[in-house]
């Protein structure tokens, strides 16, 4: 497997900045590209802030801020930015034509072994990576915001993506400290959003059908289901909920679950509905308009995610210490 | 609203013990009932362990273990156990006929203002609380195991449950430190399991259709979606994911989400399926049969839940300190 030592980030927005920080933390030389020189300068300052925050949270792998930061530089010239990069991460707007154009341009300047990864959350890679010289090197690596506190990355190959590209990308994400999940087929919404939408739509029905208030549905997750899910997935959850594991669980409860799920085959419209207005109004009771608009509540969310990342990091260390005994 | 000072727990199994500890922590006098005298004695020892663990985790509200423990006593005589209790929590096996019989017996011995709450996770209260003198006082208060670390409690009234009973139960759960959610209608699975099943069934389809491995689906939750959900629900999540909140989010993404959810109207069988065997085998790679059977992995889960409860408690204190400034 080709080793990845130099990375290039295309696009200097929020996600691009986060990727740059993660790459630099892992010891890579990073070049950040944006058409607009001023944007590059702004982004480099923001990257320093991310790296400093990781340092404050003891998540910089025992490096100093300057050690990590000096690995990052910027350029508004695509060829210079890409250079002989081993890995390029595209972070441009979620517009198919823009993705196509960027991948065509990258195709012309990258070295033959370079992996071309897109950060897209929703566009299948087959839609913008066909007919390229480096099609086999193209893949989606979709992070969740903010990726330095939410490790999962969806790795989505196109039908023509090589196994080497898939495996190299997966291994690279692990090296970054991320948690890659590999899709073996392109599906709408990939897997994270499909899982999220399934839960959201049931939440929606419960409110629309007058079973519970939006706040109480949120509480059922934030003070209930979400606690286990913050460190174990739905399958391990059921595995531990019957003496004999998953097969035993399915024998005991499978028919009941399938029956409830048949009741859930009832998709509702969300856009422009009365339920959207109801849920929106309910959210404004706890988070008034000004806190939403000012970004204060988003800042709260990100503080909580950072604190949880630190908590999980410490838990992993505790478990490692136990295993080592 | 009637004040609740004396509580009785019917059934000395795991959930009964946890309720007794929570009641005692909140300052109530608690009597634990079991037909079998020996079971009562065993349970009282286990309750001491729960209270001691809460103390070790700084979750005993600045009380000593003995202060809290001395509030708990046991009895194998139903009339003595109930006495003049203000609140009875039933924790007998999930068998309708047993629930009916217990509620009939309780109906004969409780004082008229006593609330009769069932811990059932799945039986609608209308099925075992009709034709009782105290029907209006009957309700479900379904905890999630272990309730001292997972606060949510589903409060499910029967059609004849009084508003006073609903509101008193809700307020009482808050006093215990739990997070009550009130169902306004009986639905199969209540709301926690309905939400859980919706996610689980999509996880199931992703594996059955060869999109991702069981481990990767679990990772998508435990290293992704579950992080936010450990402190905010699905509605607040979308509220913060569009500049203008829920209505804006639905305008931007609602049609896409509804389209994906229509693809999910495709319930699969779980019991006795090849997919059950596949998922089971995948789980055994990380947690071998002996760790499952010995309970070692369940103990790990409970340690993580305890650590997360402590983490969340501290986060709440931090936020309170910020609010107080």
TrEMBL record, chains A, B:
Record has Ribonucleoprotein as a keyword: no
GO MF annotations, alphabetized: L-gulonate 3-dehydrogenase activity; NAD+ binding
UniProt KW keywords: Oxidoreductase, Signal
Span of domain 3-hydroxyacyl-CoA dehydrogenase C-terminal: 189-259
GO BP annotations listed: fatty acid metabolic process
Transmembrane segments: none
Domain 3-hydroxyacyl-CoA dehydrogenase NAD binding intervals: 7-185
Annotated signal sequence range: 1-20
PANTHER family hit by this protein: 3-HYDROXYACYL-COA DEHYDROGENASE FAMILY PROTEIN, LAMBDA-CRYSTALLIN HOMOLOG
NCBIfam families: PRK06129.1
Family the entry assigns: Belongs to the 3-hydroxyacyl-CoA dehydrogenase family.
Protein name, UniProt field: 3-hydroxyacyl-CoA dehydrogenase
Protein's organism: Salpingoeca rosetta (strain ATCC 50818 / BSB-021)
